[in-house]
Amino acid sequence: MSSHALERRDAARLTHIVGACERIEHYCSTGRSSLDDHRTYDAVLHCLTVIGEALGALSDDAYARLGSVPANIPKAQRNLIVHEYWRVDPEIIWATVERAIPALRVDATAALGT
After folding, report:
1. DSSP category for residue 96
2. Span 40-93, pLDDT tens digits
3. Position 30 pLDDT exceeds 70
4. Which of 17, 42, 88, 89 lies at a CB distance of 3.0 to 4.6 Å from 108, suitable for a disulfide?
């Protein structure tokens, strides 16, 4: 395998990340008020947990291809959502949706070579 090829497992996780990012962007396409709907908010939180879990399962090589992703932040956010849900701040979730998700989608898509 060349140094540029992805492991099959990494490609699958990156595909999951891209899909979750796309769903978040779709759910929130009308802006911040999207998160006022409980079903949308719950769906976004679920997608963020998928992203955090998928990022945590990537090899170091694949993770290094995601220049927009700070180390440990997505996993920490996932852990907060899952284990300390009462501490989740909707404004931080919106900042993640607005700033981090588009960049992550671009990076993950590029890492996949698509």
Report:
1. I
2. 999 999 999 999 999 999 999 999 999 988 877 888 999 999 999 999 999 999
3. yes
4. 17
Tokens for 42? 């719950």
Residue 44 parent element (H or E): helix 38-57
Q: Strand, coil or helix: what is 56?
A: helix
7-14 long-range contacts, CB within 8 A, separation 24+: 7/59, 7/62, 9/57, 9/59, 10/58, 10/59, 10/61, 10/62, 11/112, 13/54, 13/55, 13/57, 13/58, 13/62, 14/54, 14/58, 14/62, 14/108, 14/111, 14/112
Say what the pTM is. 0.92
Distance CA 60, CA 72 (A): 12
Paired tokens of 1: 């395998």
